[in-house]
Amino acid sequence: MKKLFFLLACVAMSVLSFGQDNQLVWANGHLLYGTPIESIDSLTYDEMQDIDTLHLLLPRTLIKVMHDTVVETQIVHDTVVETQIVHDTIIQIEMVHDTIYMICNHEYVDLGLSVKWATCNVGAESPEEYGDYFAWGEVEPKETYGWSTYKWCNGSYDSLTKYNNSSSYGIIDNKTVLEAANDAAAVNWGGSWRMPTDAELTELRDNCTWIWTTQNGVNGYRVTSNKEGYTDKSIFLPAAGYRYDSSLHYAGSDGFYWSSSLYTGSPLYAYVLYFDSGGVNWGNGYRDYGRSVRPVCQ
Questions:
Q1: Residue 181, class by beta-carbon neighbours within 10 Å (0-12 exposed, 13-18 middle, 19+ buried)?
Q2: What is the pLDDT of residue 105?
Q3: Exposed, middle or buried, 162 (CB in 10 Å: 0-12/13-18/19+)?
Q4: Any residues with CB less than 8 A from the CB of 200 and at least 6 apart, and which?
Q5: pLDDT higher for 103 or 4?
Q6: Residues 283 and 135 reside in one and the same domain
Q7: Higher pLDDT, 165 or 100
Q8: Last residue of a domain, one of 51, 82, 105
Q9: What is the domain extent for residue 121?
């Protein structure tokens, strides 16, 4: 199988004038810290079968290796001169104080809050698509939702095996925030994506204007920032309903979005943001229900 040696050798020569310090390597949104070019010359496409794009970041220059094609993006005065489009998906690039931040293959909006918000749900390809539904702490959608199929119990609500702070409901571990391996956003999107905490969902609710609307035939909320300098920024949250047993409920009229935070008042629940045309609410919901996930990143 053909190696990347020739391509990367060309890349190294093309950026030699920029120096070889502080090299960073990205693959599908995952940063391999401090990896020098020499150490990846021997990678074959067999070993890279799940990697669509390889990114080499050197001072003020972004190099992309894409299926035998090398694209160089110059950074001039903190402005990205070129943003490459790969497989009809924009590779997001942001230059801040000589540091490049990339969230590969998924778009986000900066609302001026503590985190950036993705433009669509996990499992969706556009803002108005419902996407997949996840039980809290599970990372794959499924056909049937309920305690009998829930990953973190032994078939019933009083037999929890993880994320439990009460002896009445199973094994106590006192974990109250989802680990990355149990975070549907982190697992499915990779990179720095993750599910929002309860505080981050509350921040979104309290610092934005929520207008019930219809986008491309789908009901939901247009959520527009109230932060100075960001009032032209918004995201759309579709009213995707929820799944329980094998049925979809309230799609088109209600939305339910998971946080990564356990409701400590009872470990049967996790914090969730929910809404209908009458308003936006904040509360908790049973962990075994299938609900939407809207990722965030730093």
A1: exposed
A2: 58
A3: middle
A4: 113, 114, 115, 259, 296
A5: 103
A6: yes
A7: 165
A8: 105
A9: 109-297
